[in-house]
From TrEMBL:
One of its GO terms (biological process) is signal transduction. It comes from Saccharobesus litoralis. Residues 214-372 form the Methyl-accepting transducer domain. One of its GO terms (cellular component) is membrane. This is Methyl-accepting transducer domain-containing protein. Residues 63-97 form a coiled coil. The lineage of its organism: Bacteria, Pseudomonadati, Pseudomonadota, Gammaproteobacteria, Alteromonadales.
Length: 372
């Protein structure tokens, strides 16, 4: 029973009591006797007792209802306290995680930052703040950077925000320093993943770029060296071919010298034959001269012929001697030339071996350089 219903019931009881008193008063005026007054008094007492009992029932019911309401309020209070404690724990965890995340981000040497759609900085880690001491959270780049630089940066960021064009590892040079920048959209899950800015990471890649440029430069030098090695290989091949040709020529010359030496030996045999003939002719001329002398005047012409034959034999003998001397000298020269040719041929063979060894080494060097 609600308080309004209880008040209505109490009002009805009160009105009934008043009505009873009024009726009793009216009746008393017509029948003023003790019995009537007794009944009136009894009725009034009954009404009063009934009213008191009703009041006690109402109070008891109200107390019970208040107790239930109090228990309900206490249960809701306990539930709210539990929810508040849970929220407090979640808040403490979130704060601890935020502190941890900030600590981790501050330990990273790369520049990590967050901007809103108006290019104002929302967050920047310690490395970025130390590198750019003029940077202030809540402001954009134009506070501390040149306008041309800001214009380029904002153009890239608008491309990321509006067209979701992801910038990844874009290398830029500032003086002698090289940077690699990556920028992606920053979406808020609380706003249906609406794009609210960009997240950027910038890294100093000067050492890596210099290493890459050094490697490229070394690669160009290696290519030039490979070309030079190939040219040397070509020259070496030509030199080997020329040496082989020279060795062939030397072999042919050696064969010719051997043939000449063999011809000299045949000439020497012929000279010996001529020498023998000259000696015999000389003896015959002497004998003819003796016979002519014996014949006297009739053998005079024969004596002249014998004299001429003797002179011819002597000149032939002298010529043969000179030829023999020349052939001996030629044989010495040929023998010396043959030895020289053999030494030259051996030298060419050694040279060809060295050239082939050098060519093999150049091939290995070319292969090694090509691997780089």
């Amino acid at each position: 029973m609600t308080n309004a219903q209880q008040d209505t019931r109490d009002s009805r009881v009160l009105y009934m009591s008043l009505a009873t008193l009024i009726v009793a008063g009216v009746l008393t005026s017509f029948t003023p006797n003790l019995v009537t007054w007794g009944w009136i008094v009894i009725a009034i007492i009954g009404l009063i007792v009934t009213y008191k009992m009703q009041q006690q029932t109402v109070v008891a019911h109200q107390v019970e209802q208040d107790n239930r309401e109090l228990e309900k309020v206490q249960a809701e209070k306990a539930q709210l306290a539990e929810q508040l404690q849970t929220l407090q724990q979640q808040l403490e965890t979130a704060q601890a995680n935020e502190t941890l995340y900030h600590s981790v981000l501050d330990l990273i040497p790369d520049w990590i930052y967050v901007k809103d759609t108006q290019h104002n900085y929302v967050f920047a880690n310690k490395s970025f703040l130390e590198a750019l001491p003029d940077l202030e959270i809540g402001y954009s780049d134009d506070k501390f950077m040149p306008p041309d630089f800001c214009k380029k940066i904002w153009h890239d960021e608008q491309a990321v925000i509006q067209r979701n064009m992801r910038l990844k590892d874009v290398e830029e040079q500032a003086g002698e320093t090289w940077f690699s920048t990556t920028k992606v959209q920053w979406k808020d899950p609380k706003q249906a993943n609406q794009v609210v800015g960009i997240i950027g990471v910038t890294r100093n890649v000067t050492e890596a770029v210099n290493d890459r440029l050094t490697v490229q430069n070394n690669s160009e030098q290696i290519k030039q060296k490979i070309s030079r090695v190939h040219a040397i290989q070509s020259d070496t091949t030509q030199a080997r071919e020329k040496a082989a040709q020279c060795s062939t020529v030397v072999d042919k010359m050696s064969q010719i010298i051997v043939e000449i030496n063999s011809g000299n030996e045949q000439i020497e045999q012929t000279i010996e034959l001529i020498k023998g003939l000259a000696s015999q002719s000389k003896l015959l001329s002497i004998n003819a001269a003796i016979e002519a002398a014996k014949a006297g005047e009739s053998g005079r012409g024969f004596g002249v012929v014998a004299h001429e034959v003797r002179d011819l034999a002597e000149r032939s003998e002298q010529a043969v001697t000179e030829i023999q001397s020349a052939i001996n000298s030629s044989s010495q020269v040929i023998n010396t030339g043959t030895g020289t040719m053999e030494e030259t041929n051996k030298a060419f063979e050694v040279t060809i071996q060295h050239i082939e060894s050098i060519s093999g080494s150049l091939d290995e060097l070319s292969d090694d350089l090509s691997r780089f």
